[in-house]
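ok so for the tutorial part 2 we go from a plain amino acid sequence to predicted structure tokens. step 1 is just haveing the sequence, like this:
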Amino acid sequence: MAALIPLFPLDVVLFPGTPLPLHIFEPRYKEMIGECLAQNRVFGVIRAGEQSMAEVGCTAEIVTVVKEYPDGRLDLVAEGRKRFEVLSVNQERSFLQAEVRLIDDEPGTPSQEDTARATQLHSELLAMASAQQDLSAADPSLLSFYLAASLPLDLDFKQKLLSLRSEAGRLSLLIKYLEQLIPNLHRAARAREKAGGNGNVH
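step 2 — the prediction. this is what the tokens look like for a chain of 202 residues:
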């Protein structure tokens, strides 16, 4: 079923179940967020560049208004809810709106091996940055999104992940990506150590 929702085009990819801090300062977005707060409505976050906009985005619910400024600017935290595909864009208001259709995953669950492997690679990558993440609250059917959201991954890759309609497919893609990324990061770190160690690169 199609629904008309306000759109917030940003250079980010928002995943279901993950937080998004926002600073609202443009008049059109102050208006949009004001309406969402007053009517308890979600808005759509969609990745947009200079010339183009992605076809798949994620609805966002405002969880907390962190700060209100005297001039009407807002700091808030929203959280990704459901994925959608854009059917048509509506430009009647000061902010964009879109007719969207919500996307559900196809039935099926990923293998325990893939789940364990993806979690292990994620921990390995975080350890390289001396970071960790508690996954105990993660919804198992959205694990790929929780893992990818906390990593500084390429936005094209994140968009591809958002568009896939199976958790097994997303985890498999994430494993392949991290299995290539981690050795490259280790190599780069070793090269930096050598270069910084004695001024000579061997």
